[in-house]
Amino acid sequence: MRISVIGCGYVGLVTGTCLAEAGHQVTCTDNDPERIATLKAGVVPIYEPHLDGMLAENHRSGRLSFTSDAGEAVRAGEAIFICVGTPPLENGEADLSAIDNVARLIATEACESKLVVEKSTVPAQTGQQLKRVLEVYRRNGSTEFRVASNPEFLREGTAVEDFLHPDRIVFGVEDEFSERKLREIYRPILERRFRCSVHLSGCPATQPPTLVVTTINSAELIKHASNSFLAMKISYANMIADVCEKVGGDIKEVTRALGLDPRIGPRFLDAGLGFGGFCLPKDVQAFIRLAERSGVDFSMLKEAERINKRRIDQFFEKIRQALWVVKDKQVGVLGLAFKANTDDIRFAPSLDVLRRLLADGAQVRAYDQEAMERTSAIFPQVQCCREPYEVARDADALLILTEWEEFRQLDWERIHSLMARPLVIDGRNLLNPEAMRERGFEYYCFGRPAEAGAMPFVPAQVSNIFAATASD
Ligand code: UGA
Fold first, then answer.
1. Where residue 94 falls among pLDDT bands split at 50, 70, 90?
2. CA distances (Å), 138 to each of 108, 117, 149, in order?
3. Bridge-based pairing state of the strands 363-367 and 330-334
4. Number of Cβ within a 10 Å radius of residue 319
5. Where are the beta strands (DSSP E) in 19-60?
């Protein structure tokens, strides 16, 4: 089928490339002409495993093309996937102006009837509004627009795999034609009939995806409810970690056993610095606002958000307790991306940590395999290093802010010998506390037994007095 994708962020690029991989003829556009020029030159502007090879291959074969002429893109597809951003407004609601602009574009440029598919994460009832404005903006009376919702459940870092091997595919539709068209689009994926470039020696034998067909409103709610539930799960694990610290439990042991109950499941129970990124924090806020506007006080979700914001304060307390005075200390940061396997730093916990370290007068050096360029654009004062050992040299403390597997595999003996003080504060519970202490490190993390003889918990106000006295 001829498909158009509007918006070449990570959702649009992964959607367009994977639909081309599944055999469709895909045209992608974006309102940033530089981005389109980069893509036409075969360069993928984001780091997403498997995407560059697959994009290049489909581009070469002619199944995937890019144009900065949005009208041309609209006219090219029978189905148009809207993949534009819906960033948060000041009040936490989603900014839907990009969706409105795309609706106007489609309505004015289309010469034939179209299926318009919402892929961007949007609040419930956006589909209804979209239908209305497509009618209002329509120029040609004979073109008909059908609207459907097809929420994405793509995790950055595994988005290509998530698209090609999803657990579920949701169609929010209100007519048979839209459902039929979407089934045609997703048939190769539902029936696993495509050449998968992720698993060259054969795809793993997992269950085929479940197709869920709902109303448009339900599909929109499924997306928000999923992300909000994941956020609550992380905040729940973080609260258990706090209790573990107070009563002497080990969060890893507790969540492992918790997760073995199939009603709970093992994923998204990793305690630490909390959730960041461009999806969970903004979707939680938008869902809270949506509920509020509908007269529902989603207090549970508000609390999950509050718990998450507090994680940075708690992490900083650990830094202050360990270092005592932060000013003029040489602090090394390992990991800047909001999670592993991405170069995305939007709403990354690392940004808040860096901001506070610099405000307190620390000298900061950092390393991340993918996110350094984006970080130095915001924090030119942070010295970016080419490898983790450079970050460790003469450091008074090393902070782990992203769960990159590479950090687990480092030569920690070598790091010990390089540091001025072998102190590691692990915001992602990535390392083994016992092994680190055996290697001679002073090691702190979240919700796992404190070092024998370590300082007991000092409430925030008291440790602030320490810091204030020291700098006086
Ligand atoms: C999230 C959802 O997981 C996807 O299903 C969804 O499609 C996507 O948002 C979206 O709306 O587009 P993503 O933002 O890529 O995906 O990141 P997650 O894997 O959900 O991680 C979010 C944050 O939570 C990261 O900062 C991660 O480090 C943190 N996290 C995750 C934890 O702190 N603990 C965990 O156990 C898991």
1. confident
2. 6, 17, 20
3. parallel
4. 23
5. 25-29
Residues 6 or more apart in contact with residue 209 via CB below 8 angstroms? 165, 166, 167, 168, 169, 189, 190
Say if ligand 1 is within 6 A of residue 332 CB.
no
pLDDT score for 452: 52
CA dist., res. 49 & res. 358, Å (int): 32
Residue 331 CA to ligand 1 centre (angstroms): 27
Angle formed at CA 301 by CA 158 and CA 214, multiple of 5 degrees: 60
pLDDT in tens, 95-116: 999 999 999 999 999 989 999 9
Helix (H) or strand (E) holding 149: strand 145-149
Question: Which residues is 88 bridged to in the sheet?
Answer: 94
Q: Is 18 considered catalytic here?
A: no
Q: Residue 403: name the closest of 198, 157, 230 by CA.
A: 157
Q: Are 266 and 259 spatial neighbours (Cβ–Cβ below 8 Å)? A: yes
What lies within 8 Å, CB to CB, of 55 at 6+ separation is 13, 17, 39, 42, 44, 64
Indicate the burial class of 78 (C-beta count within 10 angstroms; 0-12, 13-18, 19 or more). middle
DSSP 239-264: HHHHHHHHHT--HHHHHHHHHTSTTT
Ligand 1 atom nearest to 11, measured from its CA: 12
- Output the pLDDT for position 462: 43
Average pLDDT rounded to a whole number, residues 136-157 = 91
Tokens (6 digits) for 180: 């039929």
CA pair distance 77, 81, nearest whole angstrom:
9
The contacts of residue 306 (CB under 8 Å, 6+ apart) are none
- At position 438, the amino acid (one-letter code) is E
Hey, whose CA ends up nearest to atom 22 of ligand 1? 275
Q: CA neighbours within 13 Å on the CB side: how many for 47? A: 17
CB 334 within 8 A of CB 391: yes
